[in-house]
Amino acid sequence: MNGVFITGSNTEVGKTTVAIEIIKHLGKTRQIKVRKPVETNCDLVDGNYIPKDAIVLNNACNSNEPLNIVCPNCFALEASPEEASAKIGKTLSLEDLVKACNNQVGDSFVLVEGAGGIYSPIADRSLNSDLAVCLELPVIIVVRDELGAVSQGLMAIEAAKKNNLKVECLVLNEINSNSLSNKDALIGYTDVPILPFSKGNLEFFYSEIERLI
After folding, report:
1. pTM (two decimals)
2. Rounded distance between C-alpha atoms, residue 172 and residue 150, angstroms
3. Catalytic (active site) residue 36
4. Which letter, b or e, does each residue of 10-30 get, where b requires 16 or more Cβ atoms within 10 Å of its Cβ?
């Protein structure tokens, strides 16, 4: 598989927001497909569970794939996929997610978005890191740019490297404006490229993403 795995230091760090901008930029020159193999906290509408993140990710692509290909596993409970699937008596295996990610991707560049942080449970006795390893994809780690980001980022990088995963970059997502110097601090402790991300200033981010992946 040719692509990248988007993960985070935790949940609610803005993985989907960052992924959308990557898709939109790379989609100008490449055929992009997205896979969100499992999503929780889905709303039930007309008998179907609606994966909100998978919808916006798919809409950013130029592939127009059916949603059930992009995200075939949807659960209502706001919890890890492992817990959400177990609550309804379903065993969601790592193999299920690997098959979902590889389904009908062909030669496209595939952006796979995980669920939660790199060590969050994503399937039965399996973590996000396990899925990235099985897919043999490099990872992009998204960290919320806030107090504590240095520790969170370094731990996520260490987790990835412990699993022999290549880290393309760490994205510092500035959700709320601040005057912290997390980028400079992280540069002092890792050789992983550190990319600031702000919706109001994306040109540097775009150029670096193009160069890295």
Report:
1. 0.96
2. 10
3. yes
4. beebbbbbbbbbbbebbbeee
Please, which residues have CB within 8 angstroms of residue 77's CB and are 6 or more apart in sequence? 40, 41, 83, 84, 87
Strand-by-strand arrangement of the 167-173 sheet: 32-35, 109-113, 2-8, 139-144, 167-173, 194-197
Q: Could you report the per-residue pLDDT of 70-111, keeping only the tens digit for each?
A: 999 999 999 999 999 999 999 999 999 999 999 999 999 999
Check 24, 28, 33, 36 and give the catalytic one.
Answer: 36
Q: What is the CATH number of domain 2-212?
A: 3.40.50.300
| 59-80: pLDDT as tens digits | 999 788 999 999 999 999 999 9
